[in-house]
Design goal:
8 strands; two-stranded antiparallel ribbon; 47% helix; alpha+beta; six-stranded mixed beta sheet; 167 residues; 3 helices
Length: 167
């Protein structure tokens, strides 16, 4: 009788330990999934911040910003004369711009009144990318008329497209 009671207590102790370890394993699995989701979120956030940084760098490149006759720089605008030359120069010398722009593709697309597109820089890395679209004013000094805040010339509406690649 005493042997049966001790066997019963030992079986209860073993059962409690098995249940404890099963709950512990489920806890580790749950914590691992939460941590994995948090890490993915942090990585996506870092990629988004990098895309914003690159977009800001491109917006302030002296190769693109508008200047009026008074040498006043307008950072909300891209000069089409400069853009034509910058698209050739930046694609020919990718190594020079890699430190600034990294693994990105940068395009400028005119939306109104015509539908033209320039590829400024292309240095892709794989297929995983995050795109940022920044509306911008495109200034053409060759055009007739007046462009508010920039000077004499033609203005059009465009979008700066920055695609940041991640591995």
């Amino acid at each position: 009788m005493a042997l049966r009671k001790s066997q019963m207590k030992m079986f209860e102790s073993v059962a409690v330990l098995i249940i404890f370890f099963i709950l512990l394993v489920f806890g580790f699995i749950f914590y691992g999934n939460v941590a994995k989701h948090r890490i993915r979120t942090d990585i996506q956030e870092a990629i988004q911040l990098q895309a914003i940084e690159v977009a800001q760098r491109v917006s302030f490149l002296p190769e693109l910003i508008c200047t009026s006759g008074e040498e006043i720089e307008n950072y909300d605008c891209i000069d089409l004369l400069k853009l034509d030359m910058a698209s050739q120069i930046m694609n020919e010398s990718k190594e020079s711009y890699h430190d600034i722009l990294g693994y990105t593709t940068i395009r400028v697309k005119e939306i109104y009144p015509s539908n033209r597109e320039w590829e400024l820089y292309s240095n892709p890395l794989g297929e995983n990318k995050l795109s940022s679209f920044i509306p911008t004013l495109l200034y053409d000094a060759r055009g007739s008329g007046s462009c508010s805040g920039v000077g004499r010339g033609r203005c059009s509406f465009g979008v700066l497209i920055v695609e940041v690649y991640s591995s």
